[in-house]
């Protein structure tokens, strides 16, 4: 069985949904099709939740109505027969009635997550209606019946696997299954989600849960590019990446993949392919366990980073100091991305500021603490960078004009990470693009 995940732009227009139908019916292989919300919908739902959180019901209502209008146009272009249109009207009515009811009750975080789930529920139901109209046999699998996360918001892969296998065993002869990306149930049995961009993660988790042959991530670009195409003009797709390289790029900001989406596939050794819905025959990127080629393959940048420096001439040399520092972060469930040490200070970075005040207060017990916000990590990823002669010199050469706050090298063979002020990010990415890759 294979997994085919289609992102927001791949289902965001009626003609694209028809294209998705063509792609999933090109071969007769059994497949689970994972869909995101139509592009723009999750952002709109976030906007509705934000308005309600500020108790601005008028604005929330305005936003609900604007989104509703979009869907009323969308389904008429998507579907042609009266029967299918009637079904779609019912689906849209049900979900927008739900949003309008929320306007009348008191708002909380659990309701907000219910709001966010509407996008994937709508896209999959509308797509399923299209398949019915076109007589394409398919089974609708509600993700909320099998996708779950625990009290630490970690996916419960074993439970997911058990549940989905039981469900699939009810349909031995069916070939196409449609389900939602992004949404899941949490340990309180409430509707929850795998965070923004989480449909990739859903696809990889489902792939791992059923030991799929391949997880295909269909999007609006022909694979992982060597640099961020939103920032740099000249970029090119990378044919092959190892799981480790892809995981580093995803974690350090390559938006094409959700940061956590590689580990489930890696754990079960399932190839992941990044493919372009608009150019289905382009090679895209294949991600497997194989480590190939040497030298720099790609760069990615992660914004919204905060650097924390703890300076203590008295404490640092004492053994156990780093453990005490790490324990503070562990206590507040805040993960550390980069770390560098000197004799008198340790610097590290985080991207989650939910507990920054408490963390700083507790660290001050061990020394003086400095906090720098608005930093960016640029991660340079490839195979055996650490062993390749001159590659670090080449990287530094490109960055002569930018003050580097931190440099992390040697932690893995695949990665060199740099921290600099966010204002230098775009220029630094461009300079590295020109200096590290050959362009003719
Ligand atoms: P989807 O809606 O299909 O999940 P996303 O918008 O989440 O698509 O991801 C695809 C986008 O990721 C591309 O359009 C591209 O602008 C952006 N992107 C950022 N970095 C990279 C990269 N290194 N390679 C390819 N795409 C990237
Ligand atoms: N619809 C969700 C989002 O926009 C999940 C996804 O697209 O992967 O974040
Ligand atoms: Mg995405």
From TrEMBL:
GO biological process: homoserine biosynthetic process; lysine biosynthetic process via diaminopimelate; threonine biosynthetic process
This enzyme's EC code(s): 2.7.2.4
Pathway: Amino-acid biosynthesis; L-lysine biosynthesis via DAP pathway; (S)-tetrahydrodipicolinate from L-aspartate: step 1/4; Amino-acid biosynthesis; L-threonine biosynthesis; L-threonine from L-aspartate: step 1/5; Amino-acid biosynthesis; L-methionine biosynthesis via de novo pathway; L-homoserine from L-aspartate: step 1/3
Pfam short name (any one): ACT_9
The keyword Kinase is annotated on this UniProt entry: yes
GO molecular function (one): aspartate kinase activity
Superkingdom of origin organism: Bacteria
Domain Aspartate/glutamate/uridylate kinase, first and last residues per copy: 2-276
Binding-site residues, substrate: 42, 120
Catalytically driven reaction(s): L-aspartate + ATP = 4-phospho-L-aspartate + ADP
Family: Belongs to the aspartokinase family.
Protein name per the record: Aspartokinase
